[in-house]
Amino acid sequence: MVEKTEQKQKLGMNRRNFLKAGMAATAMGVIGAIKAPAKLANAAVPSSVNYLAPAKGQWSKLHPEHNYGGASVTFAENNDQWLGTSKLVGTVKNTNEADMGFNLARRGLISDRAHRGVYNFVPKHPQGGAISATLGFVGTEDAVDGKPAPEKLPIPDPEQMSQHIRDLAYFLRADEVGIGKMPSYAYYSHKVYPTKDLAYQPVEECVYPVTQRYPYVIVVMVDQHLETMLGSTGYDGVSASQSMRSYHATGNIAVIIAKYIRSLGYNARAHHARNYMAVMPPLILAAGLGELTRTGDCAAHPRLGFRLKVAAVTTDLPLLPNKPIDFGMLDFCRVCGKCADECPSKAITPDKDPIEYNGYLRWNSDMKKCTEFRVSNEEGSSCGRCMKVCPWNSKEDSWFHEAGLWIGSRGEANAKLLKSIDDMFGYGTEQIEKYKWWLEWPELYKIPASIPPAPAPKASPAH
Ligand code: SF4
Ligand code: SF4
């Protein structure tokens, strides 16, 4: 193990020397064989490559060009046959929140280990617990939803209003933002009352049907932090903190945007990790922020990979939605499989192609295995190993990486080449010591011997 780590560190060092010494031009010879754009070939740091600009006014004043990090991006569809590059092959059924991974663990339907582990898997690292607890402050029904102001204020046309909402999200420190047509199947069929606990009460008493439907969704995205990811194994003590960092930031941004829209006289409901009424991956696709990946339902962004978390606002504010995007992720996942090789629970399928699942095509990865590992990992808190090793992230911010993304987004043959280069340089599987800034408390990482006793019952709010 030590030998393997040393080898990886050596590979990482070689890569950085390689980049610093300007020898990357040699690699560009290889890359050049796939016709690198002139902007990349001269080794400058390009802001975007092969970028298809959105229609005038479709993006933002603060970020006039959306940063896809060099990937070659085209637009896709959101209709009854496609959601971006995901093929709809039947009726997509709305999901019951009680059947989501962590809730299955709370209900004892995954394993005894998962049942015991789910109670403390985030707060067992005090830093992740602190961030998570403060997100709870904006998780109440009053924070995420409410009545709109009785009078509608005069607002700009949908195109300008969309630009304004994106600018507001960037102002509030979102890393990315998109607007989509809200897929009705992304709403939960039933939501779990925030005041009920699936561990101690029958599921029928814990859920209520979701009837709210708004036509648009605003999705805000925050990076889980590149340097931290480079220093981490992907499943050590900081893993839950990385998730919570982005959940906290996106959750607060979504709550503010929803409140703002309601004060303009329109309906708006925030969805974040402490109070969802919808599943997030289809929203990421609908808002033009990503494609599904081999991991099953995790969506990746062309620049961030899936080193991200999102929150959303569903609304009837008149907006002009973005189109979903296609940057070649599905072709890449077909030939890559690095996350499947590196997943500590073997939850990610090595199959080449997606299969039908609930009316759409996705890879047959196993949510229950993933959930069990994340809630009962005794080497840290949670897990994001797949996110770390994915060739679409875990990179220095360099022209070389941007060139790689451009290559990777151009078909299966090029994806094979990029994956080989990624492996050759040890990308994704190394831990860079200079970035390991957090403290570890391995004595806190054990899962409890039993589930805690039921807390005193709380009154449920009316819905
Ligand atoms: S989060 Fe960890 S356990 Fe889950 S799929 Fe990713 S690598 Fe596997
Ligand atoms: S590691 Fe490879 S297979 Fe897995 S999500 Fe990333 S690109 Fe796809």
UniProtKB/TrEMBL annotation:
Which domain of life does the UniProt lineage start with? Bacteria
Alphabetized UniProt keyword annotations: 4Fe-4S, Cell membrane, Iron, Iron-sulfur, Membrane, Metal-binding, Repeat, Signal
Among PROSITE patterns, the record links this protein to: 4FE4S_FER_1, 4FE4S_FER_2, TAT
Annotated signal peptide? none
For activity, the cofactor(s) needed are:
corrinoid; [4Fe-4S] cluster
Q: Give residue ranges for domain 4Fe-4S ferredoxin-type.
A: 323-353
Q: Please indicate if the UniProt record lists Coiled coil as a keyword.
A: no
Localization (cell) = Cell membrane
PANTHER family the record matches: IRON-SULFUR CLUSTER-BINDING PROTEIN, IRON-SULFUR CLUSTER-BINDING PROTEIN-RELATED
What NCBIfam families does its record include? RDH (TIGR02486)
The protein's name is: 3-chloro-4-hydroxyphenylacetate reductive dehalogenase
**What organism does this protein naturally occur in?**
Dehalobacter restrictus (strain DSM 9455 / PER-K23)
